Structures are given as C-alpha cells and as structure tokens.
Amino acid sequence: MNIFVLGAIAIIAYILQIFLGMKQIKNFNSVYIRMKRKGKVAIGRRPGKIASGTILLLGVDQRGTIQEAEMMQGTSILARFKPRPQLVGINIHQLTDSPVLIKENKLTRQAAANAQKIYLEVERGNH
C-alpha cells in the first residue's frame, strides 16, 4: 500500500477519535449540569487503561440521599451515560455498605467508593 494512503487513513482515524471524544465530553457536561442544577453532585471514577473505565455521577440532596444516578462504563469513546435507578434512595454515607451495591460489578463498586470518599472529604472541608 502506498504510504500516503496509510497516512490519510491514520489522519482520518485520528480526526474521528477527536470528534467522538468531544461528543463524549459534551455528554458528560450535559449530564453533570442537569444534576448540578438540582443540588450536589458526587463524582466517582475508576479509570481504566486496559480494562474498562467507569464514571459514576450521583445527584445528592441536603440529607445525603441519592436522588439521581448515572454511570458511563466502557473502553471506547462510544460509551454514554446510563441511568442507575437502583442507587436512588440510598444515603451516600452508607453507599459502600448497601446490599444493592454488592450486586454490582467490581468497577461500579470502586467508582461508588471513590464518589463516597470524595463526597465525605468535601463535606468535612478537606478537599
């Protein structure tokens, strides 16, 4: 194959990756802003290099009760946020002890623990 054809394919793939990555960031921003308008948002993440990465957004009220939960999980730039209604109604202070969370996969549990940890640090004024 001609080196120019390979170069053109690589450039097109790179531009496509940038475009889809920007759409994913836009999806994150729209979900975050929607939740932020309703109250506090706890963000938990479990970055993935080889395994899939996970971002968990939890809309929390003044008492610490989760009002809304959405999660993005996947290895590609095609991943989008999906509602997690099973987490709604749980107090974020007891999130990692919840029997509902035990049924979730390991990556979701790690992201939830991260969200709880950061939320508690911010609540104490340490973050």
Structural class: alpha+beta
Overall, the morphology is elongated
**How many H/I helices?**
3
Distance between the termini: 54 Å
Runs with pLDDT <50, length 5+?
A: none
Strand order of the largest sheet: 1-2-3-4
Order of helices and strands: HEEEEHH
Largest sheet: 4 strands, antiparallel
Helix content: 40-55%
Per DSSP E runs of 2 or more residues, the count of β-strands stands at 4
The proportion of strand residues reads 15-25%
Give the radius of gyration.
18 Å
How confident overall, as mean pLDDT? Answer: 90
Explain what you see.
With 127 residues, the chain is of the alpha+beta class. It is built from three helices and four strands. The chain has helices at residues 3-36, 99-102, 106-124, and strands at residues 40-46, 53-60, 66-74, 82-83. It has a four-stranded antiparallel beta sheet with strand order 1-2-3-4. The radius of gyration is 18 Å and the shape is elongated. It starts with a helix and ends with a helix. The model has no long low-confidence stretch (mean pLDDT 90).
